[in-house]
Amino acid sequence: MDSKKHQQQTPSTDGVRTYSSQLNASWSNLQLKIPNNRNRTSIVAFVECVLVELTHEDVGAEYVSQNAWGTKQTQFKMADKVAEVFYKRHYDERLGWHETILSRETLRRELIDRLSQTTSLATDRSHSGPVDTSDVFSVKSVDQLDWK
Question: Cβ(78)–Cβ(56) under 8 Å?
Fold first, then answer.
């Protein structure tokens, strides 16, 4: 993803919202590195906050992991107006994009499990090169996710 895109103005439906106003949005601080030292209750509360934001704002969530084979991204966004169905889109540099649909409960369980991991996805892979970055989960504007 192009870092310049993150610095450009991001239009909303009224054309007023900018990148700087997104930094002050209620969802802008919803970010978590994996592994982390949060207990399960804290993870569940975090996931509930994420689901509320996915339901009420024009945002998506993204899990990014890097390893010797490149970057892997998993993105989530609401698929229906009642927020019971969500899109899940996964990108692997070797395989490209793959999209599926999840129920709210399935997404909730998946996020809790993924964010509760004691190791990053990158370190779970068997490869010779060292992994020096944490996985990162964050909430971003749908425009920043470049969802097509």
Answer: no
Answer yes or no: is 100 within a domain: yes
Domain, as residue range, for 90: 28-122+133-145
Whether residue 82 lies inside any domain: the answer is yes
Read off the pLDDT of residues 100-112 as tens digits, 9 standing for 90 and up: 999 999 999 999 9
Please, which residues bridge with residue 65 across strands? 72
* Total domains in the fold of the chain: 1
Query: pLDDT tens, 8-28?
Result: 333 333 434 444 445 556 777
In a domain, 98, yes or no: yes
In a domain, 21, yes or no: no
Task: Quickly count: other Cβ atoms within 10 Å of residue 20's Cβ.
Answer: 10
Interior/surface letters 80-98, b for 16+ CB within 10 angstroms, e for the rest: eeeeeebbbbebeeeeeee
pTM of the entire structure? Answer: 0.76
Q: Any idea what the Cα angle at residue 38 is, between residues 116 and 47, rounded to 5°?
A: 60
